[in-house]
Amino acid sequence: MTGALLKIEGLTKAYPGVVANDGVGFQVAPGEVHALLGENGAGKSTLVKMIYGLVKPDAGTMQFQGAPYTPPEPRAARAAGVAMVFQHFSLFEALRVAENVALGMENPPPMRALSTRIHEISTAYGLPLDPARTVGDLSAGERQRVEIIRCLLQDPKLLIMDEPTSVLTPQEVEILFGTLRKLAAEGTAILYISHKLEEIRSLCDSATILRGGKVVASCTPRENSARELAELMVGGEFAATDRAGRKLGAKIFEVAHLNLAPMSQFGPALKDVSFTLAAGEVLGIGGVAGNGQEELLSTLSGESPSAPGTVSLHGQDIADLGPNDRRRLGLLAAPEERLGHAAVPNLSLTENAILTGTVRRPLTRNGFLNMGAAKRFAEEIISGFDVRTPGPHVAARALSGGNLQKFVIGREVLQAPEVLVVNQPTWGVDAAAAASIRQSLLDLASKGAAVIVISQDLDELMEISDRFCALNEGRLSAPRPTEGLSMEEIGLMLGGAHGMQEAAR
Amino acid sequence: MITLVKRPTPSQFWAYATPLLAVFATMVAGGILFAALGKDPIAAIKVIFYDPLFGPNAAYFRGQLLVKAGPLILIASGLAVGFRAGIWNIGAEGQYIMGALAGASVALAAYPAESHLLFPAMVVAGALGGWLWGMIPALLKTAFGTSEILVSLMLVYVAQNFLAYAAFGPLKNPDGYGFPGSRNLQQYPSAHNPELIAGTGMHWGVVAAFLAVIATYVLMQRHIAGFRIRTAGEAPRAARFAGVVPAKLVMFCLGLSGAFAGLAGLFEVAGPNGQITDSFNAGYGFTAIIVAFLGRLNAVGILLAGLLMALTYIGGDMAQLMLGLPTAAIQVFQGMLLFFLLGFDLLTHYRLRLGRARA
């Protein structure tokens, strides 16, 4: 490959106790869409942070447009022509689109001129966006457009995108891919980080695969199957989930006409949510986070009270019961936010096992903690769910996201729930861990438990759920059997992409 | 350039080492302060820390140590439970006054009848008085979302006015020749909280303080309720997920710390102090906040911190008398202890790294 835009050789970065990047080298040509693949902790984030000037490498060289490139800070990287869209947006909800864009610029032009530019760029790239709207009113997909347009205004040579599709509906993904292909055709190189292998196969020209901080392979994703890519990432055989052999039992759980006021200023309200669940069934609830997912989980777990008769288990009205009373009856939950909700960051794993485990496990005697039993329970979770940690005495915040998620799911699954509600069970979890979490949910269902999986990952929901419904702006669509459901139909259930019509024009 | 690196797990070593380091740093900085005031720093430190324990009049001062430490430990034990949950009762001084007033009122109402039941009744009344005064900020917080910090603090001043009113009005000694202040409970055998072992300073309040240390230790370390309290302070959402009802928690914590402060007030008025006067309260309720933090909000730590704080009180008094150090200097010295403790606390959660600044 001649005339590489970005050329990296021997890039190394070590943190205390771990070498995040070890002699990493690859190159990106102008107009190339290049994928960075790897499990969590493989070193992708560190690598792009070095390219974007957020982290300084210990050793190695970078060349950008043929010249040595050592950005001391993101500002220098932007000046050189490198832009980045982060996984987590940095937008002010109370400000308008144009104001948010101006905040990210070195010398923002007058607001009127900026609005015109935003309008031009957004239509040119098929990302319709009204500069005068307040960000708090935008969908996740539209918020991402604000971030992308903020980058495009700098006319970048290299655009880095960190897991951009995790918050998008299928239609929005298509729009984004159209934009990215157009940018590439104009000569902008794109460095694309994602876990979603099918997406990478359809979008990317080449891929660099990282494992344990080292480049283990480079390939052309179109020429490899998703399974092959996954095996390259994990470095071994990859167990596919097995959903066979499940029988649905009697109806055990019902939510009827559930309404809930918003929990925060820009949060959605739940509006007339109804569904039923049979023993042994997995119900998938799709939709972009922020459409009532957290609210639904906190109502089902018992943290937020709801009107009488709205939630019932085995025909018993449990709407006014708190989390522990629900646990006693067999309704368990695993919230999305691991640190601070599902687990206490500064407490040890043993103590985090106590957090939800005392009702269904004999971890207390007359209210007094049995630390030995709690430790054994934590060890049981650690070994049963392959949680990688030195031991149960370690603080929850010392675990990686994927390992803590395995712990949280394991803690609930091992308490033998009759109904388990999980929100984003594999968010930010690497492919192997995600597969084992999904398998454990299926195993639980095959033992007769009903499982509600709230997730943004549609592939995941298609893989494990028997019926699918979508939560959009606090409304839940009627559940439909997953089998035979097409992506178009799912898109329609999700309420379509915002601004679809304009984009199609 | 020094950089701070967050430790993955808080350091056990520094959790125990920082209080010692803070005491040492306070001695050094205090020594400099005393030197700047023209006193011999070594002598001043010796008077404060050494003489009360091992000096010529140590026999007397050792007794004083428990008398001063008892209320501090008792109040701080209650406060620490709330502080662990993120519920900030700053008004223990007021609860201490109200406990003393309630207990003394029971005694003075019964005067001069003698009964073995009187003292227990006073104890109950004292706890109840402090509990009620603590429930005011608790109810206002749960009903209207007011800040318990402000409400409990302001109620201290209300309590002080109650105290003055009682001392000059309804509780005034009718045989006191018009002097303000109640009858001296030390001269009323049924109501008196005597020194249990002569020369030790041990009275029922000190016993209660030790029991409070044990009880709060068991509660916080061994019982599910204490576990939930700690969870609530660390991660409120996780606590709700674990079934904690925030309103109940607020009432429990403010009620408990109020009751403990009320007990401390009762034991003080019935024992070492003896009577209700308008200047009855000596700041134990505020100093106990320092004791609670100095003791790492941990029961055993509070026991040690209470004794240390009592030592600086007694030593400070001696330094004033013998070296002519101003009161303010002693208070600065005590404040420095908390300052250094909180400063060094950083080492528990962060690691210092000396290195080149990042470009």
TrEMBL record, chain A:
Membrane topology per record: Peripheral membrane protein
Keywords: ATP-binding, Cell membrane, Membrane, Nucleotide-binding, Repeat, Sugar transport, Translocase, Transport
UniProt cross-references to CDD domains, sorted A to Z: ABC_Carb_Monos_I, ABC_Carb_Monos_II
SUPFAM superfamilies documented for this protein: P-loop containing nucleoside triphosphate hydrolases
Name recorded for this polypeptide: Nucleoside ABC transporter ATP-binding protein
Residues in the signal sequence: none
Entry-linked Pfam families: ABC_tran
Naturally occurring in which organism (per UniProt): Rhodobacter aestuarii
Gene3D superfamilies in UniProt: P-loop containing nucleotide triphosphate hydrolases
GO CC annotations on file: plasma membrane
Recorded superkingdom: Bacteria
Residue intervals of the ABC transporter domain: 6-237, 255-498
Subcellular location per the Swiss-Prot or TrEMBL entry: Cell membrane
UniProtKB/TrEMBL annotation, chain B:
Membrane topology field: Multi-pass membrane protein
InterPro entries attached to this UniProt entry: ABC_transp_permease
Protein name: Nucleoside ABC transporter membrane protein
Primary site of residence: membrane
Entry keyword set: Cell membrane, Membrane, Transmembrane, Transmembrane helix
GO cellular component, one term: plasma membrane
Pfam families assigned: BPD_transp_2
The keyword Transmembrane is annotated on this UniProt entry: yes
GO molecular function: transmembrane transporter activity
UniProt lineage: Bacteria, Pseudomonadati, Pseudomonadota, Alphaproteobacteria, Rhodobacterales
Subcellular localization: Cell membrane
Membrane-spanning ranges: 13-36, 69-87, 94-111, 117-140, 149-168, 202-220, 241-264, 284-311, 323-344
